[in-house]
Structure formats: structure tokens, C-alpha cells
Design goal:
Blueprint (H helix, E strand, L loop, with lengths): L4 H16 L3 E7 L9 E7 L2 H17 L6 E3 L6 E5 L3 E7 H7 L1 H4 L5 E2 L14
Parallel strand pairs: 2-5
Antiparallel strand pairs: 1-2, 1-6, 3-4, 4-5
Helix pairs in contact: 1-2
């Protein structure tokens, strides 16, 4: 089983929203094989608690514009690792230190990487 086309589209929408708020190190994984209830994880990094919260808010707003409501949001008060569950897509927004400490990339390294639509080092609207 692989992530649905709609989930892939939502990954790109969420990544663009995160990128618009300065998120770094965006990476998405197709976790549909090991996790039966989730298709994809999107990981993003913010450089401060305020930035982490802004990224999470932007992602949530972009998803709501697509008619996708969050099912759960955890970590908002501390803004060190905010998890937003949209059902088929779960977005993890980390502070730099938590991203390194928890190392979710190591945990999901065997899962296929999904395109985010965001080119590293370039603004989201820059030509490739």
C-alpha cells in the first residue's frame, strides 16, 4: 500500500505553508506500509518556539482551506515539537534541538520519501 494521490497533494500543500513561514529541512515519508491508519508524515524544523508555532499555525490554516480539519494537535503550549494529526497526514514541527534528539528520520529511514514540492535552499515560488 502507498500514500494516496490526495495525501501526496496535501503533503505538498502543508510543505508549502511550512516553507512560507521559514521551515527548514522539510522531509515527508510514506508510512502507509508500517502504519495502517496514516499515509504520510511531514517533518519540518523551526528555529525558535515562536517560529515552530507559526509554522504549525500556517500548516493548519492551509489544510483548513483544503477542507481538511485537524483531528488532534499536541505540543502547542511548549512549541518544541508540535504534532498535528490530519488523519492520513501527520505533520511534525520541531524545534532544531528536538528534531536532532528524537531523530524521526532514523526511525522511518526504510520508508519511501515523498516529494514536498519545496526545493531546498530556494523560495517556494523560485524556478528550479
Amino acid at each position: 500500500m502507498t500514500a494516496s494521490a490526495r495525501t501526496r497533494e496535501l503533503v505538498e500543500i502543508a510543505a508549502a505553508a511550512a516553507d512560507g513561514k521559514g521551515a527548514e529541512d522539510l522531509v515527508a515519508f510514506d508510512v502507509s506500509e508500517p502504519l495502517p491508519l496514516v499515509d504520510a508524515f511531514l517533518l519540518a524544523t523551526g528555529n525558535s518556539e515562536r517560529n515552530v508555532a507559526a509554522i504549525a499555525d500556517a500548516v493548519e490554516e492551509a489544510m483548513l482551506e483544503q477542507g481538511v480539519k485537524r483531528l488532534r494537535r499536541e505540543g502547542k503550549n511548549e512549541a518544541r515539537w508540535i504534532l498535528i494529526d490530519f488523519g492520513d497526514l501527520v505533520v511534525h514541527v520541531f524545534h532544531e534541538q528536538e528534531r536532532v534528539f528524537y531523530g524521526l528520520e532514523r526511525l522511518w529511514k526504510d520508508c519511501p520519501v515523498l516529494p514536498t514540492g519545496v526545493t531546498a535552499g530556494l523560495p517556494a515560488d523560485a524556478p528550479e
